[in-house]
Amino acid sequence: MNELLLRGGRPWTPGAAVEVADILVRDGRIAEIGPGLTADTAETVDLAGALVLPGLVDAHCHLDKTMFGGPWVPNTGGRTLAGRIANGEGRREELGLPSADYASNLLAAMVSGGTAHVRSHIDIDPEVGLRGVEAVRAAAARHAHRVDVQLVAFPQGGLLTRPGTAKLLEAALAEGVEVIGGLDPAGYDGDPTGQLDVIFGLAEKYGAGIDIHLHDRGALGAWQFELIAARTRATGLAGRVTISHAYAMGELAPDEQRRIAETLAEAGVSMITCAVGDAPVVPVRVMRAAGAGLAFGNDGIRDLWTPYGDGDMLRRIMQVSFRDRLVADAEIELALEAGTYGGAALLGVADYGLAVGAQADLFAVSAETPAAAVVSVPVRSLVVKRGRIVARDGRLVTD
C-alpha cells in the first residue's frame, strides 16, 4: 500500500471556502481530507499552509510541432494561416520534426508546472503520415506516470483539399487515437458540409471525440458554430464535440454571444480558448452563465508558428483572465475552474478533483487565494500525479 500524507495545505474546490486540511492519498487516490489526519506508514510532506489545486489540464497544444529545448530557430512563417501551414510543412524534414525528444522536453516542463492532463493535436497529411502520432506517443511513454496525453488526428493542411488525408485520419483512429480534428470547414476547406460529413462519420464509426480548429471570424465563424451544434444534435454526439479557438465568439455582440453559448450548451458542444496573440478569446463569464463547456490550452509552443510559450497552464489561465478582463476574485476563479475542472470534463477524465475517491492529481503553491495564484503564477512547490510526487520547486523529480 502506497500512502502520501500532505499536511497543512489549503485545498481549493470551486464554490467552497478554502480552509486548512490534511490530504491522505492511498494507492493513487485521495482517501481522506480533513484536519489532524494520521498515517503511520505514509510519506509525509508539510505544506505549511500552501494552496492546493487540482492538476492543470492543457486541452489544446501541438506536441508534434514543438522544438522545445532545441536550438533557437527564427520564425519565418509570416502572419497568414496558409503561410504558416506551408512553412511548417516545408521545414519539417530540415528541423527533424516531429521529434519525440522535443515533445518529451515540453511534457517535462508541463509536468513541472502542475499539468496532469494534455490533449495534443497531431498533424496528419500524406507527406508526414502518422509519424507525428508515433513521436508523441513515444514522448508520452517517457512520462507515462507523470502526465496523461490524449491525441487528436488533425488535418492541419486541409482535409477535403488534401487527397489521401481522410484515409490517414481513419488509420490513426483505427490505431487508437482518441479524437478526430478539423480545420475551418468553410474558410479553409471551402466545403463545410463535406468536411463535417467526414469528421462526424469517422467519429461515429470509431467512437471518437471531435475537436475542430475554427479560426474563421465574423459571421462566417458564427454560422459554423450553429452548423456544428446542429450536426452534434443530429448525430447524438453531445458531450463529445469541441470547437477550438472559436475566434468569432469573442467578436460577437453580447446578446449574440449569449445566444450562441446557450445553443452550444443545449447541443453539448464545448469550446477551447488559448488567448493566442491578439485573437479574440471566448468570453468566460458568458459561457459559464449559459452552462456551456469551456477549457483552455497553450496552443503552439516554441514551434514554427510561434517562438513563444513555456507550457505553463497556470500562466495561460492568467493570460486568458487578463485578455477577458476578469478582475474580481470570483471571475478569476471561473478561469481557474475552466483550466482545471472544465478541461477535465472536456477530456473525459474520470474521478477528477480534490475530493475523496478522486485521482490524486494536484499541486501546491504559495498564494493567499486562488485568484492570487492565477495572477502571480508562483513556482509549483509540489506536484503529485496519481499519488506520486513528480516535481518539486519547479523541477521534475527523476527516477
Question: Please, could you describe this protein's structure?
Answer:
- The protein is α/β, with parallel strands linked by helices.
- The chain has helices at 81-90, 92-95, 100-112, 131-142, 165-174, 192-206, 218-235, 254-267, 284-290, 313-323, 329-347, 370-376; strands spanning 3-11, 21-26, 29-34, 43-46, 51-54, 56-61, 115-123, 148-154, 179-183, 209-213, 241-244, 269-273, 294-296, 362-365, 382-385, 388-392, 395-396.
- The strands form 2 sheets. Strands 1, 2, 3, 4, 5, 14, 15, 16 and 17 form a 9-stranded mixed beta sheet that branches. It has an 8-stranded parallel beta sheet with strand order 6-7-8-9-10-11-12-13.
- Helices cover 35% and strands 22% of the residues.
- It is built from 12 helices and 17 strands.
- A hairpin with a 2-residue loop joins β16 (388-392) and β17 (395-396).
Which descriptors apply to this entry?
eight-stranded parallel beta sheet; 22% strand; nine-stranded mixed beta sheet; 399 residues; 17 strands; single chain; alpha/beta
Q: How many helices in DSSP terms?
A: 12
Anisotropy-based shape: globular
Low-confidence stretches: none
Q: What do the pLDDT scores average to?
A: 97
Q: What is the subunit organization of this protein?
A: single chain
Can you summarize this structure?
By secondary structure, the protein is an alpha/beta fold. It has helices at residues 81-90, 92-95, 100-112, 131-142, 165-174, 192-206, 218-235, 254-267, 284-290, 313-323, 329-347, 370-376; strands spanning 3-11, 21-26, 29-34, 43-46, 51-54, 56-61, 115-123, 148-154, 179-183, 209-213, 241-244, 269-273, 294-296, 362-365, 382-385, 388-392, 395-396.
